[in-house]
Amino acid sequence: MKEAKCERQRHEGKIPNEMGHSIVRAQTQKTGEFLSMVVNTVNDYLNQTTLESLQAELPTEKGYCCDVLSTLRRMTVFCEGGAEACRRLLMQEPFQESRAEKTLYNVYHQCIEEFFMPKKDTWCENSRASYTGVSAIEFYHAVPASLEQLLLPLSAAFLKMREELAHYEASGSSMAPIR
């Protein structure tokens, strides 16, 4: 009888099952690694790039270049916060599945969606990119080659992570929107 009660509670989501934990834990780990890679890649670029070096590479409107660099810094801050949240969740025992799901939800909206639709409208998403194999990012103005070389591989990685997190979000998890 006690087993039936536990099984009913597990089915209702009141007792997490180990398989669910391992799936959420694995996704949290993979997401944290992805975010750390993004932070390292973008920070390397930002540490060696100045407004003057961008304009020397390709004369572009100064305000637009400032907005692009600002967008990259903002993205780095969000990704750094998400990576830290994932790291802390993975260190906790017992693993807190509901907090991990909320963290993954926040990463999806603050990092992934922000990459494709930045607040300052410095670029937009090419919705056909996944079909054509080109960059998922289209700039509103011409940009230096170094910036395109940074964002081309990142856009492919962000597309893949967005698919994984969107699939995870839609796979029947108990993830609820954060307001």
UniProtKB/TrEMBL annotation:
The protein's name in its UniProt record: DUF3907 family protein
Pfam family, one: DUF3907
Organism: Bacillus spizizenii (strain ATCC 23059 / NRRL B-14472 / W23) (Bacillus subtilis subsp. spizizenii)
Gene that encodes the chain: ypuI
Record-linked InterPro entries: DUF3907
Highest taxon of source: Bacteria
